[in-house]
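Q: For a teaching session next week I want to show students how multiple molecules come together into a single three-dimensional assembly. I've collected the sequence lines for a complex. Could you give me the predicted structure tokens for the whole thing so I can convert them for display?
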Amino acid sequence: DIVMTQSPDSLAVSLGERATINCESSQSVLSGSTNKNCLAWYQQKPRQPPKLLIYWASTRESGVPDRFSGSGSGTGFTLTISRLQAEDVAVYYCQQYCYAPHTFGQGTRLEIK
Amino acid sequence: EVQLVESGGGLVQPGGSLRLSCAASGIIFSDYGMSWVRQAPGKGLEWVSTMAGTGGFTNYADSVKGRFTISRDNSKNTLYLQMNSLRADDTALYYCAKTAGSSWALANWGQGTLVTVSS
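A: Of course. Below is the structure for the complete assembly, covering every listed component.
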């Protein structure tokens, strides 16, 4: 199974500043058939289901603000929130969906400093 | 608007069974793969199972393989999860989720149904 490891486990950032969350996979999640990285990022606020932010490592889901961006390839990925807003307080998860089981990272809790 | 509504959760004794349902609306159901993801209280997300739109293939997490069965009825726009031989560590909020269509990322989620396994 592919193990997804996020860092840090928690993060406190000032409003308006940049937040960066990393996700590392134990093996490449580059799909040979699509030549795309099968990596998604989700945001989960308290008492809500997760929300898809990014898929194919860097494609923003419709309606997601452009302050959210994804990057990386192979085994290393990053979610960047360029100008943190109060409503961005949440737990963020990465997930690989190339290879079953479609494993999630353990989550990163983002708070306001 | 896509809507996914889960039902069927509840309290069950260890070794018991439950069947979860997920009713979908606002989509052509058979066009999309569907998944179940669970979240134990205070814990992270755990992918459970995925089924293709046509039901052609399925995958399961090792933790549920042989005990859980995913299925769908495209004529009823409904996804199911049959859970047998339930254990205490199956206690979780179970989410139904629809794939993005162009990928297996999970674009739409229900509110979840709570399964509690306890004597």
